[in-house]
């Protein structure tokens, strides 16, 4: 499992990278320093990436972005990038941790899994509207899917936001998040209020279920 670290200025121009980032990108350090993240990002992910970073403020919870990097040979590799904006005289520094995704045991790529999660959310919401919430109350799964979608789309929703997206009352969201924490599927940051995020175990569990759904 590869984890690399980067330091960039407020606009995303790289100031420092470690050896693992060079390995992930298949580039020398001198090729990466001074380049903006847009130049390394797959065109299909660039707009979403720029929008997500623009919304990140100093002191916010770390932002998780799922994206593709383009290597010199033209191949694209999927990564989860966790970014924080730190205090600085020029508007702050961006500190990133890059985790290259390996689809161990999964048959489908991250984009297909994201689309499957969107479909799961849509189907559950339609059933609840048509037949009533008392018949379809899979709150834990719906909350996990909302967190998964948020991380894939570069958002950091708190419990209140998840409550609105999932149409689940906030006290219920808080109770289920506590249960999911006990199961080690979710953890909460403590920056400016708790922000639920999937643990590595939680990410693997959600993706395994989505992967199997795509085979049905």
UniProtKB/TrEMBL annotation:
InterPro entries: PAS, PAS-like_dom_sf. Gene3D superfamilies: PAS domain. It comes from the Bacteria. Coiled coil: none annotated. This is PAS domain-containing protein.
């Amino acid at each position: 499992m590869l984890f690399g670290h980067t330091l960039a200025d407020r606009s995303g121009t790289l100031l420092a990278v470690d050896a693992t980032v060079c390995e992930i990108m298949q580039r020398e350090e001198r090729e990466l320093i001074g380049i903006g993240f847009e130049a390394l990002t797959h065109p299909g992910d660039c707009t979403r990436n720029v929008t997500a970073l623009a919304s990140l403020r100093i002191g916010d919870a770390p932002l998780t972005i799922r994206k593709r990097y383009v290597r010199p040979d033209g191949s694209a590799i999927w990564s989860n990038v966790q970014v924080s904006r730190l205090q600085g005289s020029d508007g702050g520094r961006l500190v990133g941790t890059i985790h290259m995704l390996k689809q161990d045991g999964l048959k489908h790529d991250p984009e297909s899994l994201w689309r499957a999660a969107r479909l799961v959310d849509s189907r559950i919401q339609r059933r609840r509207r048509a037949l009533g919430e008392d018949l379809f109350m899979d709150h834990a799964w719906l909350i996990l899917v909302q967190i998964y979608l948020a991380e894939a789309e570069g958002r950091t929703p708190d419990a209140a936001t998840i409550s609105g997206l999932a149409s689940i009352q906030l006290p219920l969201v808080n109770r289920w998040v506590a249960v999911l924490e006990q199961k080690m599927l979710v953890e909460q940051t403590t920056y400016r209020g708790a922000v639920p995020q999937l643990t590595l175990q939680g990410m693997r569990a959600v993706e395994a279920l989505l992967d199997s759904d795509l085979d049905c």
